[in-house]
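Quick start: what a row looks like.
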Amino acid sequence: MAFSISNSWGPPVPKSLSGSDENAVPTPDEKPNTAIKNTLKTSGEKDKEPSKVLKISRENFPAAAHSINQPVITLPFPSYQTRFKLLESTTDLMLTGIEMAPNFEVDARFYNIPCIHSSRPKDRVTQKHRKLHANEVNLCGLKIICTQAPTPNTYSEFWNTICDLNAMIIDLTNDNDRKPESFKGDLKVTALPYYPQEVNEGIERDGITVTLKKIERLSIDPAVQFTCNEYLVKINDLTQSVFRVNFSTWNDFQGIKLIELVGLVECIEKLKEKYGEKIYVIHCRAGMGRTGTLSIALAMWKMHQTNTLKAYFNTASESIEKTVDQLILLGRVKRGKLFVSSLPQYILLHEYLACLLAKPSP
């Protein structure tokens, strides 16, 4: 087992970041198994066959009249843009007077994105607030920790939090988030890796050892792929397994295809069943836009699986638009005004909810 022992931040960043995404989509003429094998080779398993691919059946997709690759609804007046602007105004009023944590205390990645103080996660033993730019968000019974990607100063706090909660990490960062030239060399703004990148490689820092044990490729087809990496994390005398799902083709401020969101949510839920009940710790770079969008999609999925989604519509006469708005506001009062931060993400949630409503209950 190879270890890099350093006081610097995480593993070295590759000289060339282009094409190094863990979930790089194979070209159309490349067979899925070949793509998986090649990906694993670059991650240290040079002489091993790839792990078995966890497939997600298209039979689970909603039996709606539309194609899953096409927009599923069109919103009449007021338009999406108008509703989204009204939502921002409502958010500003709702957050008036709410206490924000000092930026230095949570090591803010962006100084214009505050962290709401009251919903910050606490140390299970001391009950003191963790020194992380993170918030506990409860969406219709689904508790999620939404956080920015760890900074050099929060490496120890991040891993201690993960182990304290026995959490599964959902990582939405990609190569674009890790390009120093995009952020004028500010390494705090850049989302540097906080984990080893090759199988059996370990990082020892601040008394914490993190070793990558396994990479598992998850997919529904060659165009929609994720990885689930298993790590052994040793803190003092405690060693435990931590799983990190990485979906690296979702760019900041953008949406993704509906089929990608459906596949991502179902992959995460299957892993939760496979590895036991775990709380999700979700992050992108700032832990707001992509993180908030996926958090709401997971909450919608849970409501659908527990047969409360359609019942909610039937009893409350709610519309898709109103439900999406209410879930976003529920998240924003805990995480801040950029929870779901762009119009494409807002529209994607409408499409996903319509998809679930068209799908038979389990």
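That is the whole record. Residues 3-8, 10-21, 23-77 have pLDDT under 50 and may be disordered. The two ends are 45 Å apart (CA to CA).
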